[in-house]
Structures are given as C-alpha cells and as structure tokens.
User: Fold this.
Amino acid sequence: MSSPSQSKNKRTVWVALTVVVGMFGFGFALVPLYNVFCELTGINGKTGPKYVLQSGELEADLTRVIKVQFVTQNNDSMPWHFKPEIRQVEVHPGEVMQVDFIARNPTSKDMVAQAVPSLSPNEGTDYFHKVECFCFTQQALKAGEETRMPLRFVVDKDLPEYLTKLTLSYTLFDQPINESTAISGDAG
Amino acid sequence: MSAVVENELKEDNHHGPAAGIGRWLFTTNHKDIGSMYLWFSFAMFLVGGCMALTIRAELFQPGLQMMEPGFFNQMTTMHGLIMVFGAVMPAFVGLANWLIPMMIGAPDMALPRMNNWSFWILPFAFTMLLSTLFMEGGAPNFGWTFYAPLSTTYAPPSVTFFIFGVHMMGVSSIMGAINVIATILNMRAPGMSYMKMPLFVWTWLITAFLLIAVMPVLAGVVTMMLMDIHFGTSFFNAAGGGDPVLFQHVFWFFGHPEVYIMILPAFGVVSQIIPTFSRKKLFGYHSMVWATSSIALLSFLVWAHHMFTVGIPLMGELFFMYATMLIAVPTGVKVFNWVATMFKGSITFETPMLFSIAFVILFSIGGFSGLMLAIAPSDFQYHDTYFVVAHFHYVLVPGAIFGIFAAVYYWLPKWCGNMYSETLGKAHFWLSFVGMNLAFFPMHFLGLAGMPRRIPDYALQFADFNWISSIGAFMFGFTQLLFLYIVIHTIRSGKKATAAVWESAEGLEWTIPSPAPYHTFTTPPEVK
Amino acid sequence: MRMLRLVGFRSATFLWTRLRWVISVFLLVFVSSSHAEYGVNMTPGVTDISQSVYSLHMIIFWICVVIGIVVFSVMFWSMFKYRKSQGAVPAKFHESTTVEVIWTLIPIIILVAMAVPATSTLKEMYDVTESDIDIKITGYQWKWQYEYINDDVSFFSNLSTPQDQINNEATKGEHYLLEVDEPLVIPINKKIRFLVTANDVIHSWWVPAFAVKKDAIPGFINEAWTKVNEPGIYRGQCAELCGKDHGFMPIVVKAVEEPEYQAWLAAKQEKAKAEALLSSQVWSMEDLMTKGEAVYNTNCAACHQQNGEGIPPAFPGLKGSAIAVGPVEAHIDIVVNGKPGSAMQAFAAQLSDVDLAAVITYERNAWGNNTGESVSPQDIANAKGN
Assistant:
C-alpha cells in the first residue's frame, strides 16, 4: 500500500485515540461535573457543606413561616438508635435554629457512623444552609454510649414562595473503623 | 466496470488464504475477520437465546418451576449482556468488515493487524463473562444495566470478572470503530466522495463515531465500580459522599447512544436492500444522511429519559422529555423515505426484502412505543414494566436482528458464491416473524396491566399473556436453527450466484465476482 | 408534491374505509377486554393524576395508531400496487426537498401538540403544596417499611403469600404475590405525601392505581404524593431490580374513609403499647415456638428456607448451624444487629422483642436443632441495650 495512505491512517488513529482517552476522562469528569451541577441546582437533595453566615443575613423574614421536618433512618445493618429530638420546627427565613439529634450505640462494640443528609423537595436544597452539622464529620460512639448531636441551620430568605415545608432526612451508615476515626470520645 | 476484469487477472498473482487453523488465528484479511465476527456473534446469539428461553420457560406459568429467583436474575443479566455486546454489536462489526472495503473500493480495512486483535479479544472476553456462571455466588445478577449499589456493595464476587469482561469488549469495540473510521476516511477509491458512499457506509461511519465517544464512558463507569468495590472509593456510595444516581447518569450517557449503535447499521442495511428490490433509487439520500447524523447527535442529550422516576426536578424532566420526543422527527423521516422508495417502484419479495419490510413496520411499532415512553408523566406508569421490555425488544429484534438477517441473505451469495434456498429463506422469515410477534406483542399488554420487569414469578392475571409470549419465544428461538441450516447448506451446496446476484443491485461490491475473491480492489476502481 | 397528491386522490376513500375498519377492531379489543379479568391496558386509577395520566396515554396511543395506519397503508398499497409481477415499471424520482420539508414539519407540529398536555400533567405531579399526612416509605431487601411520621406509627409490610403456593404445592390464592401481612392504610380525599428512601439497594415504590412510582434510593429522600378519590384496596409491586426477591415485595394500600382511618390509627397505637406490655410477660416454650414459626416463615424463610436449609453459599442454612446451636448471645446478636457486608439484616427495628425472642427460640429448636433453650423478650431487651 502507498505510504501517504499509511500516514493518513496514522493520523486518524491518533485523533481517534485522543477522542477515546478524552471520553474516558470525560466519564470521570462527570463525577465533579455532576457534583457542581447538583450544588447549583440541588437536584439530588444533597445539602451543601458548612455555610458561613454573612452579617447582613441574620435579619429574619417574619412574614413567612417555614416548616422544617426531620426524618432519620439507618442504613443496612446499622443498629444505632438515632432520632431527632423534635420532629418538626417552624422557622422564619433568615433565623438560625438549632435542633439536636440523639444517637446511641446499643451494641457491645465501639462503632463509627456517618450521617448522610438529603433534602426534599430538592428545589429547596440550595436554600437550606447548615451552619453546624454533625454530618460534616464521622461520629464515633463507644459501646453503649449515647450522645446529642447538634444541627444549626438557617433557611435562606430567597426560598421560593411556593415552598412552605422542607424535609431533611439523615441516613446513618455504619463505617469501618480506621486510624483516622479511632474512638476518641469527643463525638459530636 | 474494468475493475472486475483486473481483479480476476490479478488473483493468481496474490497468495490466497493460508492453510489450517493458522489462517484464522493470524489472518489480517477483512473477509476472514468478517466471517469470524459473524460466526462468533451467531454463536453468542444462540447462547443468549438459550438464556432467553430459560427465562421464558420459568415464566411459562405462575409459580417457581425450574429455578431459584437468584438464578433467574443471573439469566436476565447474562441474556442482556450477551445479546447486546456478544450478538448484535459483533454481527455489525462483521458486516462492516466484509462490506465496507468492498463498498468503497478499498483492498482491505485500514488497520488489518489491529483488526485481527479486535476480533480475537472477544472470545476471551466472553469466556470470562460466561465462566462467572460457574463461580461461587453465581454470575452477575444485577441486570444488564448494573445499577449501583446492587452491583457494587451487594454484588456477587464474580462482579470483578464481569468488569474485566466489559473492559475487554470495550477495547475490542473501540479498536473496531477506529478501524472503520480510518478505512472510510482514508481508503475510499478515487471518485468515491462522501455523498456517493452507500448508506450502509454512512451509517457505520456515524456508528463508529458514537462508539469511540461512549465506549470509553462505559469503561469509565465500570472502572469506578471496580474502585468502589476494591479500593475503597465512594463514587456511588452515599456513605462516603457519593451518589448511586450518579451511576445511572454516567451509565445512560453511554447507554442511550449505545442503543443507536445497535440500530444505525441496520438502518444502513435496509437502505441498501429496499432500493434493490423496489428497483428504484433510494428516496432522499441526503436527508437519510442528515437524519442519521441528527439521531446520533440527539442521542447524547436524552439519557435521563431512562431515569424519569429517580427524582429529577421538573425542569430536568421537561428538558429530557422534549429532547427525546424530538428524536421522532429524524426517525420519521427515515421511515417516510423508505416508504417513498417503495412507492412507484417495481417490487419483488425475496427474503432480504421481506426482512426489510418487516423491519420498517415492526421498528416503527417500537418507535411508537418509544414515543409513548418519552412522555414523562405516562412514563411513571410504563417505567420498569414489561411495556419497556416490549418496546426495546421491538426495536432490537425486528430492528437490529432482522437487519442482520436481511444483510446475511442479501450478501451471502456474494460472500460464498452460492444462492440460498428462497423457499427455506421465506420459511425462516415467516416463522421468525410470527414467533417474534407472539413473543413480544403480548408484553405490551402485560406492562400496561402492571407487570414489572425482571421478576421470576407473577400474579395470576398476567398468566395468559405470559403463556402466549413463552410459546412465541420458543417458536422464534428454534426457528434460528433453521437459519443455521440454511447458511451452512448455502455455503456447501447452493446454486451458483452471478457477480451481480440481484437484478438491480447497485454498488461496487456487485462488480466483483461471486464469491468475492480473497483479495479485491488491489487496484482501486474508478468511481464516476 | 406530485406524489403526495396522487396518494391523496387515488386512495382517499379506500384509506378511510380501511382506517375505520382497523379502528373498530382496535376499539373492540380494548373496550371489550377492559372488562375481562386480565388487563390489556393501563388502569385509569383512582386519583385525578392517574386519570390524567391515563387520558394522556390514550391520546398519544391513538395519535400513534393513526400515524401508523396512514404510513403503513401507503406502504402496503405500494407493495400491492407496484408489484413487479403485475408489470410495474419503476419511476425515476428519488428526491424532493418539498416533500422532505413537509414530513419534517408535520411530525414537529404533532409533537408540539403532544407536549402541551404532557407538560401540564407533569406540572400537576410536581405540586408541592401542603399535605395532610406524611408517610415515610423505606425499601428493604425485600419488604417495605411505612412510618406515619406525625403519629408515631411504624410497621413493616411483608409478602403474605405462603411459600407452598409459590412452589406450586398449594392452589394459588386470588391475590397471589400481591398480598401482604400489613397493608398501608390511608384516608381518602386527603393529600398524602410519601417520603421514599431505602435501607440497602435501590427499590421503587409503585401503585398503578395512583400513578405513583418513585425510586427509593439509599441515603437520599424522594417525594411523591397522592389523593385517592375512592375507597378500596390497591395493589402494586417493587419496580426496580433489587436482588433475589425483587418479585416478592408487593405493595398493598387500603384507602378508607376518614373515621375508619382514625380508628385504625388509634388501634395501631394501642397495639404498640400492648406489644410493650407483652414483652414484660413470661412466655412458655410452646407459645414462643408457635409464634416463632409464624415470624420465621414471614421474615426468614425467603432466604433461609422453610426447612432451615438455606440456599448456600449466599444464604446459609440454620439447621445444625454453628450460630443456631452455638452460644445464644451470638445468635441473638446476629439477628438483632445483622451481619455487616452480608444479606443478613439487623432485625432490631423490624421486629418486636417478643417476635425476636420467639423466632430465635424457634430457630434453636426447629429442624432437629434441639438445644432446648428458650429466649425471653427480656433477653432481647438486654441485648439491644434498651
């Protein structure tokens, strides 16, 4: 075969391989892209990381009352008792509120847990700010130990008018114990 | 055309195929490799078919008759994987190998050694996949869509072999696709401009681009699974900050273009066959190319229509619903063009034509149910029911599979130099046609009446249609043994075929003798 | 253009006769069999949403039927008219931009017409106005948990079809595979909000009569809502492959009048208190064994099998097993807390102390596991650390 065709083939292969490698990378890039997309739109109900309050924000909008409902559940094989202290609170947008969650490790083993938050309806996710949350870190409890875990949050004043009730769910997952999360007794 | 004469003269100067098993192991000849792909895919079609019949046997009547629910799940999973990656995709690569060089006047594929590789990876990939059936904990049992966390945290140990199997299939498909692209871009005979290429070449070119765009994404998603399972990452595990829904997004970003990968080459096949037996040029060649390209582009924008029930916000649902509905436009154009090709033609009904006509009708029915599924609010009722099963079997069986059958009947005389028996071919068509409709049409009713997919046992009101469906499935399945007989019989002892084979077939492949010599177009033909 | 006119003029009446004939056949099939025992069509359901979904489905269906009839009629007519055996001579045309533009535009118009009702139905489904009752639904392998968030009522709903019906050893009942031990009970004419999540893998909660189908995803919460118009019993199934017994976790919803609902709720709360009392009572071995067998068959037999032999290796047998005849503490621990990384769940929250005591006693004494040991509800309470 003539060499011009050979070199053309070489070029085609290189271009195609670049596409292949690029698309493989793109598959992985979808992970951060998805997270960014979710943060922007709140579509998967994953609430954001620690929120730093701006000074001007703390004026509550007394004209609106938002119901915030808390539900908890354990994931597979997670034996802890895990409940919110109060099932529902009413807040004004812009008002900082604290709710405690109670967790108890009833087993005879020391355990570590991770709470995963999720908010519904997910149109509200972007407007629910956690100032402090036990879900930011893993929780370690010794056998039989009980703890109160605080959640401090504020509902954004820009919450769309049609939303009057937000449900925040926490799912507790059992985590394998490793060095970094070794029991230190300062859970919460 | 002078090329014919030239080739016949040149044949003696070229060495023919090597003797013995070495011919097949080391061959770089596109015709040999094409044949191996086709035989391999037929073997996989039978294996996947046996699994389908196992499923249908269990579903023949309510109650658990033959197997544990866990094994049933392994069967549905393996049936899907084998049919998609083992039967349909390799069959089209086989057709591409045989036909693309002959259609564009090239002596072989652009990268013959890589061609050998991309085929020979497949038997190893599928041996690995099938071996999981004998492993402790059984074969993959999480459906061919392998949603996390069922396929990660809760998967049987064999999932690792499944992941490597998918990697190997992916590498094979990607190499095959690169080869097709290089061949079509660089190896066309002088005068064979893009807009003169047969439609089969066009649809395959577009398919190949889809393949190199999405197979790496599939490789990415299974790699993420591998890392979650063995290296402690949390791509899809909520506990570590991941999201199981992310899996579905990435999977369907691959998965939706994948369904077009399985149907576009069949569009090409039918667009070759209908004009031949209508004795009239294909209507709207340009719009066919345009329609195929727009289907391929749209396929990247519609993936979340597989996920309407996972909890996507209203705006997302609306976007994906509209985008999906839009695909009906280019698809409709294609169907209208085929009908317009037949209109005012001079039609005969040889076996390839029968399969092609059935393709147009039954694929359209699958298209209609697809349009219904695109309507997000109604999809809440259709999603994950037998209505979906009916839909994708209507686009894949009379779509992809009938397309392949049509292609084999149409080009077999060119490949082996003998005519198949028209009587037996027609018998194969009618038995397949009746069996297929019996098997899959009642599934529409089952789904609408509320039967979920992937269940080994069902409530009593679903019994009648399941019974009919099983009968149809067995009829369709056993008919394929007749197809095997027809092909073998034709190769060994058919009536000799002429070079043109068909009365009014157009294209370079019909200018060379039948059977096509081992080496063709060593001197490029002139295309006017 | 010329071509279209030909089709239109020469076959208009023929087409219309054909069309009417086919439509009436379809009507016959759909209308007559909608009364038959087996369904061939989607249920219109018992909520406003399910009814609009049903009409939407029918509209799209009929549009498809009409398009199909038009296109296929042209095709069949061409196949009939232009047969080579009848001496048809092929025409030469193979292109017409006008025609292409027309058959691109017409489908677009039809699609827009379809999108309008679809969009409005979808918007209704996404309504988030205040609900009357909130129920949390959790999918487990392979059962559902219902939690009435504001009323302190929570229970599991298991398949109640006996194993011998599934194994074809007994006649199948009317609601084979679509019956549960405890249905979800809701009042009619109230807006019920479902918060859907899962404990292990992805499930999907589907009741066709409400047109509600929502995926239950571990770690995430989804919501759906319904407002039922008619009292009745409505059945559905899990709609997302969730492992071995995906086909065996039905959903039964009993929609009742408001007073009946209140009575049921009160009884349910009463029963929970009674359960607590039962735990403090002393149980005889026979009572524990009888109760244990029932609990076992509902909760354990799907994996460990009724005969205690299991389906190794994924689901080990209990007959003569190290756990079932070994130290009682380990046995209680695995049932109460589950075994991480396996299909064995933690039953602490799913079963009452009495049920747990009974089932463990049963497992330690059935199928020749004659340990003679009985476990009391107090043992369970101690193990749970209550």
The mean pLDDT of chain B is 93. DSSP finds 17 helices and two strands in chain B.
